Amino acid sequence: MIQRIWVVLIIALLSTSCASTNKTRFEFTKDYQALGIEQDVSYTDYQTSVAKVLQDNWTDLIQHDYPDLEASDVKRLIEAHTPTDKSPVKSKCDRSKPRGMLLVHGLYDSPYVMKDLEEYFRDKCFHTRSILLPGHGTRPGSLLNIQYTEWVKVVDQTVEQFATDIGGKIYMTGFSTGAALALKNALDAKQVKGLFLFAPALQVEDGLARLLDNLGLDWVPTQRLKDKDLIKYESITLDSVIAVGDLADDVRKKLGDRSTQLDIPVMVVIAENDYTIKTQTTIELFEQGRFGAKSDMMIYAPIVVGGKCFKGMLKGDPTSIPKIPTYIGSCFVHEQDNRKYMIADYSHMALTLKSTDEHYGLEGDYKYCTQYFYDEELEALCKREQSTMADICFGERRKFGSADYPECNKRGLMVRRLTSNPQFKKMTDYMDQFIERYIEKGF
């Protein structure tokens, strides 16, 4: 098996280095990377300029890469990627005390992945605003020659402008790379009044990416794909992996510096067996109290009691030192629309969206199966339409295939990566308590 893996790697490496570069989506175009917001530009004008860039990009991609896309498809894609600016939902919100929530998506993502959290915060009387990070929303080639400082600049400028626009306190919600960017802004500028961090990228495996980059390659060998998911990139540049690694190192160093300790509310939500980031690093930082005295952590983990999956909650104690996180069972049978789904575990992507989402939900039109890049038959089985526990199990991915989940294997089930949160309501109920304890009382 080990020998086969090395053969696959060598073939992938050679095919990537020799591959044709005539696909438009793999080309680097500076115009599609620079999506920053300038100090003298209003947020409305920023939205308009981003929408124009997106329209030009997809017009180009239809001509060269996706000729089957319809005008309605392009309209939906532009809407999914365009930054949003929305007032609180409830009329009973105290307008004399405005507060804003800036939402920052993750690497390869778009504002779409934050939309359910956006609606949650609007319902909690926050004015919400989002951004599209440079290099995102257009084509994977836009993340060639990227540096994390470009993302930092956009986040910092947006926070300042947001505070001026609404004349109130600013909070931030980030997913993965977006969470690391939010945390960096809070540590550097000390302007935001609270953080909600989902799967924060505080340490990643970037050693191989740096090695391949030094060898002159541009793409992760096994991740130069057909990019069928047009809401986020499937193909991955080495520069983007290195950029996140640099960002994570920067933020982690600041968290370890006693002179930059956080004194604002910080809520952290992670999946214990996250493939993309090193969650143990985040857990250790939390237990050490590095997120501050007003921090809390929720961890999705496969809890087995009496040989069976446990769906409940193991309540921790965020006030103690070392801090004790709260654990939520991530191995369970989920019922939705009179159908049952086997959830073996949570993945990196399984936090921010409801399981009913039309694109990433349990019955969404996108099925994450890229972990089976080495076997077309396995990939086809993973992508088949039927996705109840009769033949599909949802969990986290691994480099080659999926994790070894006993609950799936004993039934002979194919594992598909979980891309939404079947326990979204339970998570937001917990967030309600956090907001009430640390934000409402001190607002």
Query: What characteristic shape results from the CA principal axes?
Result: globular
Assess the beta-strand content as a share of residues. Answer: 5-15%
Low-confidence stretches: 1-11, 14-21
Overall pLDDT level: 88
Distance between the termini: 58 Å
Strands, total number = 15
Helicity range: 25-40%
Strand order of the largest sheet: 1-3-2-4-5-6-7-11-10
The tally of helices reads 12
Secondary-structure-based class equals alpha/beta
Largest sheet: 9 strands, mixed
- Helix/strand order, N-terminal first: HHHEEHEHEHEHHEHEEEEEEEHEHEH
Q: Tell me the Rg in angstroms.
A: 21 Å
Defining traits:
single chain; 443 residues; alpha/beta; 9-stranded mixed sheet; 4-stranded mixed sheet; disordered N terminus
Characterize the structure shown.
The chain has 443 residues and is an alpha/beta fold. It is 35% helix and 15% strand. The protein has 12 helices and 15 strands. The chain has helices spanning 2-18, 43-64, 71-81, 115-123, 148-166, 177-188, 207-214, 238-255, 279-287, 376-383, 406-409, 424-440; strands at residues 85-86, 99-104, 127-130, 169-175, 195-198, 266-271, 295-301, 303-305, 308-310, 313-314, 326-329, 332-336, 339-343, 392-395, 414-417. A 9-stranded mixed β-sheet has the order 1-3-2-4-5-6-7-11-10, with helices on both faces. A 4-stranded mixed β-sheet has the order 12-13-14-15. Strands 8-9 form a two-stranded antiparallel ribbon. Strand 2 (99-104), helix 4 (115-123) and strand 3 (127-130) form a beta-alpha-beta unit. Helix 2 (43-64) packs antiparallel against helix 3, helix 5 crosses helix 6 (177-188) and helix 6 (177-188) packs parallel to helix 8 (238-255). The longest helix has 22 residues, at 43-64. The protein is globular and about 55 Å long. The protein starts with a helix and ends with a helix. The relative contact order is 0.10. Mean pLDDT is 88; it is low at 1-11 and 14-21.
